[in-house]
Amino acid sequence: xxxxxxxxxxxxxxxxxxxxxxxxxxxxxxxxxxxxxxxxxxxxxxxxxxxxxxxxxxxxxxxxxxxxxxxxxxxxxxxxxxxxxxxxxxxxxxxxxxxxxxxxxxxxxxxxxxxxxxxxxxxxxxxxxxxxxxxxxxxxxxxxxxxxxxxxxxxxxxxxxxxxxxxxxxxxxxxxxxxxxxxxxxxxxxxxxxxxxxxxxxxxxxxxxxxxxxxxxxxxxx
Amino acid sequence: xxxxxxxxxxxxxxxxxxxxxxxxxxxxxxxxxxxxxxxxxxxxxxxxxxxxxxxxxxxxxxxxxxxxxxxxxxxxxxxxxxxxxxxxxxxxxxxxxxxxxxxxxxxxxxxxxxxxxxxxxxxxxxxxxxxxxxxxxxxxxxxxxxxxxxxxxxxxxxxx
Lengths: 222, 160
Hints:
The complex is a heterodimer of chains A (about 220) and B (about 160).
Chain A: H1 2-12, H2 14-22, H3 43-61, H4 72-82, H5 86-113, H6 122-144, H7 149-163, H8 169-177, H9 184-216
Chain B: H1 3-43, E1 49-55, E2 65-75, E3 78-90, E4 96-100, E5 111-113, E6 118-120, E7 127-128, E8 134-136, E9 148-151, E10 154-159
Antiparallel strand pairs in B: 1-10, 2-3, 3-4, 5-6, 6-7, 7-8, 9-10
C-alpha cells in the first residue's frame, strides 16, 4: 500500500496537493472539539455526507430499477422484497432524501442567523440557493419513481402547480410531463432528470460552493 | 524541528489514525450491504422444481403420450408463463420415462406417430423410436430425457 503510494507520489507529487486540501486550521469558533455549539457549523458537512450516501445508494438502486410504467412498481417491489439489503438501501435513499432537506434548512438557518451570507460571501449564498433548488428538484423527481399511487398523485398535483403560472404555465407543465397527463413519458423524463441532469448540475454547483468556502474561509459569528 | 512542532506530531498521528478508522468503519458498513444487494440475485434459486403433469393409470405401456404443461418462470421482477410439451412413456416394466419434444437437431417439436410407432420431426425428417433413440435423419443425439418421479400415482417432472 505504502509502496504503491510512493510510486505515484514520486511521479505526481501529491504531497503538496493533499496538504493544500486537508492541511488547514479550523477556526476555534467552528471547532467542535473546542466549542460544543460549533455543531451549527456542521450542518453543511452533514448535507454533503448525506448527498454522498444518496449517490451511492442511488447508483445501486439503479441496478434493478426500471423507469417504465410496466415495470417501475414491480422492480421497486423486487428491490424491497427479493434482494438482499434492498429494503435497507431503498429506505436509506428515501429517508436520506428527507434528511438532506432537513439538513439543508438547518444549514441555511445557520447561515442566515450568523449573517454569513453578507459581503464578501453573497455569491456563495446565491450558489447555495441554486443548490437548494437542485435538492428540491431531486425530491420532486425522485418522488415519482416508485410509481405507486402516492407518487402518481403527488406528481399530478405538483405539475398542476406549475400549470398555474400565468401565460406559459400550461406549456411548461406539458413540457415537463411530456404530454397532458402524467404517464410513461413523464416517468422516463423524471428518471433522467433525477439520475443524470440534476447530479451533473449538483456536482458543478457543489464544486463552486466548496471552492468559495475554501477561498473565503468560514465566517466569524456576529 | 522546534518544540511546538514536536508536541503536535503525536496529535497529528492520532487524528490521521482516527480519520482512517472512521472512513474504514463507514466504508465497511456500507460495502457489505451494497455488495450483498448487487450479488443477491445470483445466489437465489428460481427453478420451479417438480411439476405434476400426468396420472400413471391414464398411460398405456409402450405408448408415449404428449402432455403440454405450463409453469411460471421468474426473471427478476418479470413473471412469464412457459408452455412446454413432454412425452411421457410407461415402459413395459412399469417405469416411467419422459422426453422433451424438442428435436435435438434444431429444436422443432417432434410428434408421435402411433401407426409407425415413431417420433417424427416435421422440419428435416428426424425420426426417433419410442425410447427416443435416433433412427433416421440429421439429429445428433437421442431426445433429451427429463427427470421424472412418481408419487401416489402422479407423475412429476423437474424443471431446473
